[in-house]
Structure to design on (82 residues):
């Protein structure tokens, strides 16, 4: 699956994210992580996944705990996404 950058950053280009180290995640966790790595906002992720913003916040917190990081920036560094 090719994921697109958030609407405010789209310039007609599609971009894929790194997948190394995600094999221990469920498909839904992988999808959420991909959107976080692409710098999507919680509201955008919630709308895309058809879940609440609060659920997104919880999922992101669980992802950060799972990878031992404390911020979205650290997650991006973990997967080498600038």
């Amino acid at each position: 699956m090719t994921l697109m950058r958030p609407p405010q950053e789209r310039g007609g280009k599609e971009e894929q994210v790194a997948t190394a180290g995600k094999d221990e995640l469920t498909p839904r966790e992988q999808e959420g992580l991909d959107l976080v790595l692409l710098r999507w906002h919680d509201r955008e992720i919630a709308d895309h996944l058809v879940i609440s913003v609060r659920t997104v916040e919880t999922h992101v917190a669980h992802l950060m705990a799972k990878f031992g990081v404390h911020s979205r920036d650290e997650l991006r560094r973990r997967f080498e996404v600038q």
The first helix runs from residue 27 to 37. Residues 20 and 30 are 11 Å apart (CA to CA). The chain has a mean pLDDT of 80.
